Amino acid sequence: MSNPATSRPTVAYFCMEYGLHTDLKLYAGGLGILAGDYLKGAHDHERPIVGLGIKWKQGYTDQRIGDDGRPYDSYPVREYDLVDTGVVVPVTIRDHEVHVKVWRTEAYGNAPIYLLDTDIEPNAAPDRWICGQLYGWFAEERLAQEIVLGVGGVRALRALGIDVDVYHFNEGHAVLAALELIQERRSQGVDFEDAWQATRDEVVFTTHTPVIQGNESHELRTMEYMGATRGLTLEQMERIGGDPFNMTVAALRVARRANAVAELHAETANDMWEHVDGRCEIVPITNCIHTPTWVDPRITAAFAAGQPLRPVHDEIKSELIDFIEERTGARLRQDRIIIGFSRRAAPYKRSDLVFSDMDRIGPYLERGDVQIVFSGKAHPLDDTGKDIVAQLVEMSRRFPNAVVFLQDYDMEIGKMLTRGSDVWLNNPRRPQEASGTSGMKAAMNGVLNCSVLDGWWPEACEDGVNGWQIGDGFESDDVDELDEHDAAALYAVLLDKVLPTFSDDPERWESMMRASIQSTSERFAVERMLDDYERLLYRTG
User: What is the per-residue pLDDT for 4?
Assistant: First the structure.
């Protein structure tokens, strides 16, 4: 149970995706990057934590841009060098047994991650594809994947002989693990109420998506048919997760405590779920990053030695310019500002906000005075997201020397952009950004944030000192009003503050780079997040 050397509780961390390395395609976006950074931090700081995830046969989409300027998806089958644990556990899906193989990897400087896989004999062809595509297909396949992660994950821990004090669910995808824990106790003669309470004593939960519609739910009859109810009655299932069964609501009711991923997000999440009877408290634990993965050691060394930062940054920037030319053929200018923007293609992130008033921004793009590099993927089934990507591609073709779109966003692109850009732009509709760790990566590299006061940025922003704030924290249910307000604020900051400082005040820019690193490099490094999890979630009493 508790680790005797440290008296720290042993934690099993369940997540649908892990971003450990560009070539290990087990991640889609920020959720997986956070999970990967967390497990790397656990390794670095010797925390008794193991990860549970899925070995995705095809992973998330490879999303390319066609000749027509629109994204299309491809799904190559991937092979990875993983350790075979020799463990296979059964789960029941659609009333028949499916075999789940357990692999392990520690190859990326991470604490052990156990990856579950149904692509084995003697599973039949349909079951072998349960772990085919991350976030692919529809409700039944998603439930099958969540049975593998939750139920299979608990059974894998048992088969591996790993004793666990705390089960940590990163998002609601893993909530079926709690139903398996309840069922374990019921099979030993414990009644439902006591089994539920005992399970609550050992489960914690991290919630991310601050939009109710983005929190997954399933029809109870579908869950019953798929075998996801784990022997519970529909009435008991409804008490836990409602009808339809909301995975986030269920997680809030089976956990002793939950956390949001920024201070503002905690306010949003508590307001969003205040109607849920019997839910646990949601406390703020702001996300952090694994600095060895994301921060260029050259900028760190220059900062520590008190040497000028901008010449070092310019060297890194030139590498980004070469990288962009190699990928796209576009050659950006070293002496002009480069603004980075890489996000999942979702409407609330407003990738196109900077293009709201082409009469204002157009001349800067025509002259190349403003250079913007975009990257991001849309969910394969999200036509609206694909329209956003297509619009960014269209702008890159309209302004080929000033606007770039890097296709097939991955960890390598993210690393290059957060190190080599001059400014990091983020303009979501407040308060819909949960955290936004890419801004932390940029800040620790001396890349100055220019952001709406959403996610993590309200905790770090010293306007005009270590970056800039866009607007004044304005919120509105009227999307048009909010977008108009924030677009005006974006132009005012970008054109009247950011550009003149970059062009005309190199000493102030240098000072702001130093302040950016100084104010973020410890506060938003992964050890602080690990300590907060231990203090606020993992320990009892």
Answer: 46
Q: Residue 207 burial by CB count (10 A; 0-12/13-18/19+): exposed, middle or buried?
A: buried
The position carrying tokens 């932390």 is 440
Q: Which residues fall within 8 angstroms of residue 201, CB to CB, at 6 or more apart?
A: 256, 540
Strands (E) in 9-137, as ranges, are: 11-14, 49-54, 62-65, 71-74, 83-93, 96-105, 113-117
| pLDDT at residue number 6 | 58
Q: What is the pLDDT of residue 411?
A: 97
CA–CA dist 128, 122 (Å, integer)? 9
Residue 336: the pLDDT is 98
Instruction: Give the CA dihedral 229, 232, 234, 236, nearest 10 degrees.
Output: -120
- SS3 at position 242: coil
| pLDDT the model gives residue 138 | 86
Give 511-539 pLDDT, tens digit per residue: 999 999 999 999 999 999 999 999 999 98
**Residue-level pLDDT at 3:** 53
- Enter the pTM of the model: 0.96
Residues 23/86, Cβ–Cβ less than 8 Å: no
As a 3-state breakdown, the chain gives helix, strand, coil percent values, each rounded to 5, of: 45, 20, 35
- Per DSSP, helices labelled H in 377-523 are 383-398, 411-420, 437-444, 457-460, 479-493, 499-504, 506-520
- Single-letter amino acid, residue 59: G
* Residue 414 main-chain phi, psi, to 5 deg: -60, -40
3-state secondary structure of 381: coil
Q: What is the C-alpha to C-alpha distance for residues 174 and 110, in angstroms, rounded to an integer? A: 21
Query: What's the CA angle centered on 71, arms 68 and 77, to 5 degrees?
Result: 130
The interaxial angle of helices 310-328 and 506-520, nearest 10 deg, is 90
Q: Greatest CA span in the chain, whole angstroms?
A: 75
- As beta bridge partners, residue 110 has none
AA identity, residue 184: E
DSSP states along 181-206? HHHHHHHTT--HHHHHHHHHTTEEEE
Please list the ranges in the chain whose pLDDT falls under 70: 1-6, 541
Helix (H) or strand (E) holding 21: none
The burial of 138, by beta-carbon neighbours within 10 Å (0-12 exposed, 13-18 middle, 19 or more buried), is given as exposed
Closest CA to 303 of 412, 443, 450: 443
pLDDT score, position 307: 98
Sign of CA dihedral 33, 34, 36, 37: positive
Phi, psi of 112 (to 5 degrees): -55, 130
pLDDT of amino acid 541? 58
